[in-house]
Amino acid sequence: METNETHKVSDRALAGKLVEEIDRLTRPLGRKVRYMEVCGTHTVSIFRAGLRQLLPPQIELVSGPGCPVCVTPDSYMDKAIAYAKELDTIIATFGDMLKVPGSESSLSEAMAAGADIRVVYSPLDSLKIAKENPNKTVIFLAVGFETTAPTAAAAVIAAKRAGLKNLFMLSAQKLIPPAMKLLLDDERTNVDGFLLPGHVAVVTGSDAFLFLARDYHKPGVVAGFEAVEILRAIYRLAQMTTAGEARVENEYDKVVSREGNGAAQRAMYDVYEAVDTPWRGLGDIPASGLRMRDEWQSFDIERVRPIEVNVKPNKAKSLCRCGEVLKGQIVPQECPLFAKACVPEHAIGPCMVSVEGVCAAHYKYGGGKFKYGA
Amino acid sequence: MCLAVPVKVIAINDELATVEVRGVTREASLMLLPEAKVGDYVLVHAGFAMQIVTENDVRETNELWAEMNGAERTVGAIEALNEDERRTIERLRAGK
């Protein structure tokens, strides 16, 4: 029992000391200091641990485009739904795509209307489905950032080896660094540094973020996901902000290396190449998406069986300010739909759908309006 | 979407590993981490091993799981701090 108490006090003491130091470092700056996270898991961890309440008022934590589901545009969802409605098709997808609204409906509505949509845990599960259903066209919805893209690439490589002819990808994978560059090129983006995404960096390596310091003179720190790990990264950011320095550092070095996972990078770039791609709310971003290379086009459903969709304008959606939320320009509470017409059960915008979406996190955790303790 | 779970590799058959976590076994592909060996702890994401982690990290995670299930802490304060945390505390104490 005694060790139990000792440890709790120690963790709390470390967190408290870090917060104190962050305050001491940044208070003399006499202004707000804004750090952006670009990882949905960080967004949720920050809320869950109540870090906004813990940190001094001059520190503002802003959420960027860190949730892959949230940045997937209507046109992609409409295509996925259109394919799902075809009789010979089975859609395999991660569960968080089901409720994402397209311009007219969602995959879960298509599922209720009889479409064969299966939730999988791994892209490899779609190989099994394809083997068991040789007369069906199986389409995996390949959505995700650098952490997930190599798994879809590996599934395609495995499908080729297995001689599977009925498994295809509908790809909308995205790369984080180009989106960060877009934000930094926009003068309305006001951030002092970045909490860098730990799991993306497992694949890319921390060196993939060196451009921050080199090209933009902004510090970045790769962070883990525990409260103390995030505080440690903010502390390092605060040190650099105060000293006017910009470096890319790694506070998650027990897991993340400078070079990243070579085999994963090779699989990803063997199958995919970088192309310009649309992000919801951010528009087209150069070389930020992944398209299957020509030698793999027989696995690309959009080239094997192209489908046209008309993205319909939607009145409620036109009020949705997801795009500005994703850029950290407004907080969800500034959107007229937030917590009124748009709630997790009836989401209008994608930021409210995914559990890692910024709006969903603000909604679930009270939007930061509660102050706990002193 | 990006959740990674540390598990122990207990058998490897070609590119498919049997991994174990808290008494539950399942399969994970080693296509993206061919260097993993039996006995290694790995982070798994969407059915693929992505990264080898040290036993120490896993022990911390397991203890956290045990604690969430109602167990008492089994390690003392200093021992439970990892190297980074010790460095941070030392740095803070030194007033840097």
Structural class estimated from helices and strands of chain B? alpha+beta
Indicate the CATH architecture of the domain at 74-175 and 260-304 in chain A.
3-Layer(aba) Sandwich
Q: Helix coverage percent of residues of chain A? A: 25-40%
Please describe the biggest sheet of chain B, giving its number of strands, its sense, and whether it closes into a barrel: 5 strands, antiparallel
Number of strands of chain A: 11
Measured on Cα atoms, how large is the radius of gyration of chain A? 21 Å
- Summarize the helix and strand pattern of chain A as letters: HEHHEHEHEHEHEHEHHEHEHEEHHHH
| Residue windows where pLDDT falls under 50 for at least 5 positions of chain A | 1-9
> End-to-end span of chain A in angstroms?
28 Å
Helix count of chain B, per DSSP? Answer: 3
How would you describe this structure to a colleague?
The complex is a heterodimer of chains A (374) and B (96). Chain A is an alpha/beta fold. Chain A is 40% helix and 16% strand. Chain A has helices at residues 2-26, 40-48, 51-54, 74-84, 107-112, 123-132, 149-161, 176-185, 198-204, 211-216, 227-243, 262-271, 301-304, 315-319, 322-326, 358-364, and strands at 33-37, 59-63, 89-93, 116-119, 137-142, 167-171, 193-197, 220-223, 248-250, 272-279, 283-292. In chain A, helix 5 links the parallel strand 3 and strand 4. Chain B folds into two domains: 1-53, Roll (SH3 type barrels), CATH 2.30.30; 54-96, no CATH class. The termini of chain B are far apart. Chain B has helices at residues 55-68, 77-80, 83-93, and strands at 5-13, 16-21, 24-29, 41-45, 48-53. The radius of gyration of chain B is 16 Å and the shape is elongated. In chain B, strands 3-2-1-4-5 form a five-stranded antiparallel sheet. The interface between A and B is large, with 52 and 35 residues.
